[in-house]
Design brief:
single chain; alpha+beta; Rossmann fold; Topoisomerase I, domain 2; Topoisomerase I, domain 3; 5 domains; six-stranded antiparallel barrel; 21 helices; 30 strands; 36% helix
């Protein structure tokens, strides 16, 4: 028999071909299309890969003219499919005509099913010839099993994905045109709006305004330190909202020198293993180690098609009984985790943890092959290691910790102390690099025992605003609210950045993002509320389960969209004004002192900058601070009169600075002193394009002297040079030090503690 295999991506085609042919496949390329051929079991195979969706859904060309077609007319407008890569489709059609069987081997999920089904339907083949290969990992066992047990394609699953395409296109097109036309933002500056994007942006805007409007409330804690170890105890009534109450208690006990142990309890508690990785938790944990969700998904896809991990798009947190956990561990012996895998294999029983979600399409994410850090580098290795260590944690034993609670009474006032000591690391041994250290040993005490009081103090604090979302925590919240899917959430976040609705690592919404959200809240008919989007998600799921049809879900969605479009159209003028005002605020920096025109953020092929609107008559222009989030202010520089900006950099407190980097008000903060190399330039605090801080000579490129700087914390000039090497001295809080990491003085100091330690230890030897 002649068989045609259709895959979603080229690397999947190569891997499947290698597995099924035992490495004896051949490839030919004609017209830019690669066909892999091999024979197996008496059958002749041809393998052709797509490039994701090669068939695109869009409106007919006559609907592309924004000025001629009212946005509301798009609600019920027809949508047409066009072939994006004709060469691939023509090649598939030619081979399919001579094939006895066509096998769809795209990713097994809604999107993959649609990609495969729309391809075979577009070439008008006999559907009785079409089969489906389902696999969750590109490993030899999984692929061979999938091709031995071919199934029928799932039309309902493909319909669910197609419904999403139709709904997303209509909602995105209608709402984007309505808002963009209302605000006068057309062309490349259009205002993007979407049924998932808008409620996601609202989450960020709501949290931002909650933080901005937060008023801290002071409170006081009475803290004691006890015994030789100076372990801490908190007063049982902490926190105190009235300072005088805390002061009165502290006054009554301040003369005491000891306290009495009135309660001491210690027990061993079991700490349960984490659940296996689904897509959301993998992205959350990856974000914690510096890999944002979009990057994590791309790397996970590469690891999957390379045969190193299982399919990375899954909502399952329970390993199927069919998964041989010992076999997975055996494969990890061919990796940097040989010792860890061997330890887990030595357990008498291996039974995995499980989470709250159980699905039948794909297992949780787990490693499918061993890898080593000398061959796999960078973030790809970091993500692979995270997935391996999470798997090891899920099949290791539970951890055990000794948890101690102690109550010490001082003149009738009780102080509470908690102790924690890890006794049996269990799963934490393999996952500890991703966990905070919380060991806090309390001494062994007896009820009635007296303990010395080392100190009693009053500590003032204040309530803190809620944390901003980072990309990981936002994806978690989107998952909880059913905004988007496991496959699309990271792309939605990417759009918020690309449309300049949010900025920075903590996704601070811009004025345009805030204005858009608040306008849609008032006039958008509920588009910013997650329940509307969650309802559509539920409807699409019901299609795949056979409870609804594609046509009924699309019609219901169109009716819903029509109601929203009518409300937005009626409020078009108000929406336009709100967004225009916000955009002006976002772009307007201040008044040019030379000509009186506005100064605003301009775009150029070399990046954004601040320029005068009076150009070309006025050529005042200044670079934007590199690697920083900027916010406009209403203040002017006291030295030169230019506008000032609020500069926000990760790890540093926000600062207000003049837009002219050469202004003496800025130079005084960044000039660390004379360059010891060229004796001409000055060493200044500088920033790379990525926002990394370093010190470099102002005479660059004639002088290339640079020094690394700590990434976090305020650095100020000490106003003097190092006596040992001549490099500038800086202040880091209360610490003064030389910025030269190779300074002879630092090397000398690094040896001093060892010498001192030896001298101190000598009398007891």
């Amino acid at each position: 028999m002649r068989k045609l295999i259709i895959t979603e991506k080229a690397n999947a085609a190569r891997r499947i071909s290698t597995i099924l042919s035992d490495g004896k496949s051949q490839s030919t390329t004609t017209g830019g299309v690669t066909v892999i051929s091999f024979s197996s079991g008496g059958d002749d195979y041809s393998v052709v890969s797509l490039r994701g969706h090669i068939i695109e859904l869009d409106y007919p060309k006559e609907y592309n003219d924004w000025s001629a077609i009212a946005p509301e007319d798009l609600v019920y407008a027809p949508q047409v499919k066009t072939v994006r890569v004709k060469s691939i489709l023509n090649s598939i059609k030619s081979i399919a005509a001579e094939s006895d069987e066509i096998i769809i081997a795209t990713d097994y999920d809604r999107e993959g099913e649609l990609i495969g089904m729309e391809t075979v339907k577009s070439i008008d083949v006999d559907m009785s010839k079409v089969k489906r290969a389902k696999f969750s990992a590109l490993t030899k066992g999984e692929v061979e099993n999938a091709f031995r047990n071919l199934t029928e394609p799932d039309e309902r699953l493909a319909d669910a994905a197609e419904a999403r395409q139709i709904v997303d296109l209509s909602w995105g097109a209608v709402l984007t045109r309505l808002i963009s036309l209302s605000s006068g933002q057309v062309g490349n500056n259009f205002m993007s709006v979407g049924r998932v994007q808008s409620p996601t942006l609202k989450l960020l805007v709501d949290r931002h305004e909650e933080i901005e409007n937060f008023v801290p409330v002071p409170y006081w804690n009475i803290v004691g330190k006890f015994g030789i170890l100076a372990f801490k105890g908190d007063h049982e009534n902490n926190p105190f909202w009235k300072k005088e109450e805390a002061e009165a208690i502290l006054q009554t006990i301040s003369g005491q020198t000891s306290g009495t142990v009135v309660s001491y309890d210690s027990e061993i508690k079991e700490e349960y293993r984490p659940a296996p990785f689904d897509t959301t938790m993998m992205q959350v944990e990856a974000n914690k180690i510096g890999i944002p969700p979009t990057t994590a998904m791309k790397l996970a896809e590469d690891l999957y098609t390379g045969g190193y991990i299982s399919y990375p798009r899954t909502e399952n947190t329970e390993y199927p009984k069919s998964l041989n956990l010992r076999s997975v561990l055996e494969k990890l012996k061919d990796s940097d985790f040989k010792n860890e895998a061997s330890e887990v294999l030595a357990q008498e029983k291996i039974y995995p943890s499980k989470g709250k979600r159980s699905t039948t399409d794909h297992p949780p994410i787990y490693p499918t092959a061993g890898a080593t850090s000398d061959k796999m580098k960078g973030d790809k290795w970091k993500l692979y290691e995270l997935i391996v260590r999470r798997f090891l944690a899920t099949v290791a034993t539970n951890a055990k910790a000794e948890v101690t609670k102690c109550v010490i009474e001082v003149s009738g006032e009780k102080f509470l102390s908690d102790g924690y000591v890890l006794k049996e690391p269990g799963w934490k041994k393999y996952y500890k690099k991703y966990l905070p250290s919380n060991d806090n040993k309390l001494p062994l005490l007896k009820v009635g025992e007296e303990v010395d009081i080392r100190s009693l103090s009053l500590v003032e604090s204040e309530t803190k605003p809620p944390y901003r979302y980072n990309q990981g925590s936002l994806i978690q919240e989107m998952d909880r609210l059913q905004l988007g899917t496991k496959s699309t959430r990271h792309d939605i976040i990417g759009k918020l950045f690309s449309r300049n609705y949010v900025q920075g690592n903590y996704m601070i919404p811009t004025p345009s993002g805030i204005a858009l959200t608040r306008s849609l809240e008032k006039h958008g008919g509920g588009i910013t509320e997650p329940n509307m989007t969650a309802k559509l998600e539920s409807d699409m799921l019901s299609i795949s389960e056979g409870e609804r049809t594609l046509d009924s879900v699309v019609k219901e969605s169109q009716d819903m969209l029509h109601d929203v479009a009518v409300k937005i159209t009626e409020a078009s003028e108000a929406i336009g004004k709100e967004i225009k005002d916000a955009l002006h605020s976002q772009q307007h920096i201040g008044i040019c002192p030379s000509c009186g025109n506005n100064m605003s953020v301009k775009r150029s092929k070399n990046g954004n900058f601040i320029g005068c609107d009076g150009y070309p008559d006025c050529k005042r222009a200044y670079p934007l601070p590199r690697g920083a989030l900027i916010q406009t202010t209403d203040t002017k520089c006291e030295v030169c009169g230019l506008p000032q900006l609020k500069i926000i950099r990760k790890g540093n407190p926000p600062s207000i600075q003049c837009i002219d980097p050469k202004c003496t008000s800025n130079v005084s903060k960044t000039d660390l002193g004379l360059c010891p190399t060229c004796k001409n330039g000055h060493i200044r605090i500088m920033y790379s394009k990525a926002g990394r801080r370093f010190a470099g000579c102002s005479s660059w490129p004639n002088c290339t002297q640079t020094y690394p700087l700590r990434p976090r914390g305020l650095i100020t000039p000490a106003g003097k040079a190092c006596a040992m090497c001549g490099a500038p001295m800086v202040n880091l809080g209360t610490l003064e030090e030389c910025i030269n990491p190779d300074c002879p003085g630092k090397k000398k100091a690094s040896h001093a503690p060892k010498t001192a330690a030896k001298k101190k230890a000598a009398p007891t030897e």
